[in-house]
Amino acid sequence: MPEARATISPGLHGFHGGLDLEYHKAPACDRPIGEMPLVDEYVLPLHMHIGAPAIPVVSVGDHVRRGQLLARPDDFISAAIHAPTSGVIQAIEPRGLPHPGGLSAQSIVLAADGEDREAEPLDPWPDYQDKSPVELRARLREAGIVGLGGAVFPTAVKLATANPGGVETLVLNGAECEPFISCDDRLMQESPEPILRGAQMMLHAVGASRCLIGVEDNKPQAIEALQAVIDRLADEEDERRLEIKVVPSIYPAGGEKQLIRTLTGIEVPRNRHVTDYQLLCLNVGTVANSWHAVVEGRALTERVVTVAGGGVVEPRNLRVRVGTPMAEVIEAAGGYTEGVDRLLMGGPMMGFALHEDAVPVVKATNCLLAMRPVDRDPTPPPQPCIRCSRCSEACPADLLPQQLYWYARARQFERSHDYHLFDCIECGVCSAVCPSHIPLVQYFRHAKTEIWSAERERAKAEHARRRFEFHNERIERQKAEREAALAKKRAAIKAAQEKAAAKQDADEGGVPAKAKGNSGAASTASTDDGKSAASMSIEAARARAKERKARVQQGERATDEPDGAECPSDESTERPGGSS
Amino acid sequence: MKFPVQTSPHVEAPSNVADMMTVVLWALVPGTVAAVWLLGWGVLFNVALAVGAAWLAEALMLWLRARPFRPALTDRSVLITGWILALCLPNLAPWWLPVVGAVFAVVVAKQLYGGIGYNLFNPAMVGYVVLLVSFPEAMTRWGAPVEGGVASLTLTEAAQWTFLGVLPGATAFDALSQATPLDQWRMVVTQGGDITGASIWQDGAWSLWLNLAFLAGGAWMLYRGAIRWHIPVAMAVGVLLTASLLWGIDPERFADPLFHLVTGGVIFGALFVATDPVTASTTPRGRLVFGFGIGVLAVLIRSFGNYPDGVAFAILLMNLAVPLIDYYTQPPVFGRKARLDVDTEGR
Question: For FRET with A85, which of A147, A429, A512, B156 sits at 20 to 30 Å CA-CA?
Answer without folding.
Answer: A147
